Amino acid sequence: MFKWFCALKLLLENQIGKKIKISRTDNGTKYEFNDYCIEANIKRETTVAYNPEKNGVSEKKNQTIMEATCAMLHDLGLLKFLWEEDANTIVYVQNRCPHQALDFKIPKEVFTSKKPDVSHFRIFGCPVYFHVPKEKINKLGACGKKGIFLGYSENSKACIIYVPGQRDV
Questions:
Q1: How many whole angstroms separate alpha carbon 116 and alpha carbon 81?
Q2: What's residue 99's pLDDT?
Q3: Does the structure show a pLDDT above 70 at 28?
Q4: Cα three-residue angle 157-118-16, rounded to 5 degrees
Q5: Among the four residues 45, 111, 118, 150, which has the most C-beta atoms within 10 Å?
Q6: Per-residue pLDDT tens for 104-138?
Q7: More confident residue, 120 or 2
């Protein structure tokens, strides 16, 4: 968790010029994180131990994401090990759609001051065919494969595809 926080802090500072001012976490004692927050001048707020309802907004958001994840996996009959890709896709789409809490503004646009492109959106779980490079096929092998669309890459224009039977994404 600590390394993800450090990566987020760098992203905010380098790409959009904003700084983290306050961090709200559970009441776990993470000395490395505490020291880091002191050095970076980040105010640390903690919730009461074993009372997640004290951090209601984030807990409700997590619950909503997990309920949507379960519904999508069960609706499509996908294996449970794909839950992380499913949850990432839900968050990816939600961050690019208007939200009532932001007066129907788009979270990604509020965060970056740029309107996100959604022309690449596809239906989660739809069948897709993808190209197999020449270097990876034998003489009579197929130049394409069939898979199931699971989501989007945050770092490239690539899609995340599951090939049934391979247990690989």
A1: 29
A2: 92
A3: no
A4: 75
A5: 150
A6: 999 999 888 889 999 999 999 999 998 888 887 77
A7: 120
- Angle between helix 56-76 and helix 83-94 axes, rounded to 10 deg: 120
Domain spans of the chain, in order of start: 1-50
**Which residues touch 127 (CB under 8 Å, ≥6 apart)?**
146, 147, 148, 149
Distances (CA, A) of 162 to 87, 104, 143, 165: 15, 33, 17, 9
Contact 86, 73 (CB under 8 A): yes
Place of tokens 């996100």: 116
The CA distance from 11 to 21, in Å, is 14
Q: How far lies 71's CA from each of 47, 80, 81, 104, 109, in Å? A: 30, 11, 14, 25, 28
